Amino acid sequence: MFRNCITLVCNIGYIDKAAFVAHQLLAQTDRNFDVVICTDDISTDQSRNVPKDAILRQIDIEETIVNLPQNERLKHYTYWRLPAIQSLSDDYDRILYLDTDIFVVGDGISALFDIDMQGLGIAAVRDIHQRHRPNRKVQEFATLGMLNAPYFNAGVLLIDAAMWRKTSAFDYILKLAKQSPDALLCHDQSLLNIHFYQNWLELSPLWNWQNSSRVNLIGEFLSPYFVHFVGATKPWNSPDGSLPLKYHSDFARYFDQSPPPTQRPKLHAKFLLKNFWYFRRTQKYLARFSDPLSTVKHVKGNISPMMGENREVNSP
């Protein structure tokens, strides 16, 4: 057992997607982490696709989480990462959470566990909506009367387990969910951003390259570690040419399936112009990070401003 872990959290219907990501992670060289798939029920035989070196772990789902706001695409399962991180924090020093709609591209992931967290409990990547417009208004903060601030995507999260426990992050997040359900516009991502408001470490976007029609061509010329298929288009449900074929074929190959028929990629003028338009903005954003392991520290105020607490945090 390693002192670090990468965890994927899902209901049993997505366990095959988690298994594919786990398979990619286990192929990493110089691996210094366990791969743990957390779900609410590990008794089903759907787990047969899970690699033998991955760990299946059953988690208890809080009743509070089941009753939190959800929509047609994002059910209450999206909140499960919270009790999963809480459970794993007893056994590991650092926890890297990944969404199941991630494709592992780069080797050398182990180095991320060694970065200096600078006394903060969480490190993440700026959300794509603020990548090109850093001052873009965050609706969750505005709803709660908070000043605008950097906002991260919750698809890739590096957690310092000791700090997570020391600050009782899980308990405060559950209290916050009860206090302000109207602010949970992006569900658990909203919760995490409100709780860690201006108290988080920003990672290079290469650790969570959020794929969209605006920048998916740009990403193919970079060297991201993780490609994250935000939105409804995924490698397993997009045979229309909106994603490169390699993402479909690698996923299908793992399950001994034939890749779905894929139309010619949509290289129409609008697609190319969007990528061209955002190229310089992406270049400027990437320049903030001298290398893939450099970080930007966001610290101001309390760890959980909605709780009315005055707990100490490290100053920048």
UniProtKB/TrEMBL annotation:
Coiled-coil region list: none
Keywords carried by this UniProt record: Glycosyltransferase, Metal-binding, Transferase
Entry's Gene Ontology molecular function annotations: glycosyltransferase activity; metal ion binding
Pfam families (alphabetical): Glyco_transf_8
InterPro entries (UniProt xref): Glyco_trans_8 (IPR002495), Glycosyltrans_8_dom-fam (IPR050748), Nucleotide-diphossugar_trans (IPR029044)
SUPFAM superfamilies in UniProt: Nucleotide-diphospho-sugar transferases
Protein name per its UniProtKB record: General stress protein A
Gene: gspA
